[in-house]
Structure formats: structure tokens, C-alpha cells
Amino acid sequence: MDRKIIIITGGSRGIGAETAALAASEGYAVCISYLHNRDAAEAVVESITRDGGDAMAVRADVAIEADILNMFDKVDRQFGPLTALVNNAGILEKQMRVDQMDVARLQRIFTTNIVGSFVCAREAVKRMSTRHGGKGGAIVNISSIAARAGGPGEYVDYAASKGAIDTLTIGLAKEVATEGIRVNGVRPGVIYTEIHASGGEPDRVERVKAAVPMQRGGQPVEIAEAVMWLLSDKASYTTGALLDVTGGR
Prior knowledge:
Elements lengths: L4 E4 L5 H12 L3 E6 L3 H13 L4 E5 L5 H14 L5 E4 L15 H26 L8 E6 L3 H4 L6 H20 L5 E8 L6 H4 L5 H5 L11 H12 L10 E4 L4
Parallel strand pairs: 1-2, 1-4, 2-3, 4-5, 5-6, 6-7
Helix pairs in contact: 1-2, 1-9, 3-4, 4-6
């Protein structure tokens, strides 16, 4: 059987780290990218290798094309032909209204969340598509329920960036459907991760969970499980889908 090889961007914590652990447990050689937290990324790698898996961490800012190219090149050389990509890396900034946002903030959000995902997807397709001599594969893009809710009063820019990810998912899925690649998206609801601190409200999940029909926030592993199902052969006829994992919200 061909070796399964996965890149997970933003894999040092939260959803990315849980996805890396699950992927390794299912036999994937795992590459995670990180931006600032090298220690956390190395801890994820150490945990995987301690259990007999194969993993590496690469520092890569997905807002910088050269960093992405370097990461994919390292995977090519160290692991071999890529079979899966999880576009997980994303940022948000301090909660504010649109009429307070400056262009520099918008460019940071959109370059990381949208352009970074596009470039990673491009590089994955170049390697996996049968059109390019690849053997196929799967891509999962991490969107957000914010794409549907809009993020009013908090981060419409982040929500808009995730709306773009939804469109990327649908369009790319149709584009490569006959080339052995499936492309799907997961839209998490309110999840207990550190990203809320970036918005200036570390305990945001506690504030908003009452609006969730299940009356609780989600755990990162609950998103990771959905990602791994979409990457698996059990989802062999699923492409262009957006799976809401939101507690019913």
C-alpha cells in the first residue's frame, strides 16, 4: 500500500494538533507547520514519534509563498509524494466593527486565511492530481461557522475570509473531481481553542455557548474526527461538501 503523507498547516495547537495526532494514529506520516510556537510544534512531533509514528514540524508563515514552497519541498524530500492536505492555519484579530478596521488588518487576515490556503491547495494539486502524474489525494479546508453567521460586531473580516474558503472548497472540488482529488471543508462552531485570545476574549466560548443548541462548546478533537473522516475512503463519494460541526448552531 502506498504511504499516506499529510501536511497540516497551523498544527502546533488546537484543531491542527489534534488532527496531527489522529492522522499519525491512522498511519500517516505527518508534517505540521507552525509560525511562532516552536516548542508546541516540537511537542506534537515528539508525541507522534514516541508512539512509533513519523512526523516533522516546519516553520512556515502561510502568508509568504516562499515559506509554503519550502515546506512542500521538505515533505517531498523527507516523506515522498503527498496524499493529503489540511488547510488549518488561520488568524483573527481583536474584535471590532468594520468601520474601525484599517487596510493593514484586512490584508493580514486575507493574505493568511485566503491566499495562504489557495497557495497550499495549488501546491497540493500539483503533487496529487493525476493530470500532473500524481496518484490522487484529498484536501480538507478548515472554514468556520462564521462564514454563515457573518461575525457582526466582532470580526466580519475573519468571517469573510472563511466565506472565501467555502467558495475555494466548492470550486476546487469541481475543478479536480476527475483528477483523483476530493476537496471538502469543515466549518467548526465555537470550539475551545486559543484563537479566541487573539480576538481579545479568551473565554468567548463560555459567553456564547448558551446560543448553541447542545449548550456547550466543542473540543478540538471533535473537529479533527470530522477532518479525518473526510480524508478517509469512507468519504469516497464526498467532494465539495461543507460539514458543519457546530453543536447544532
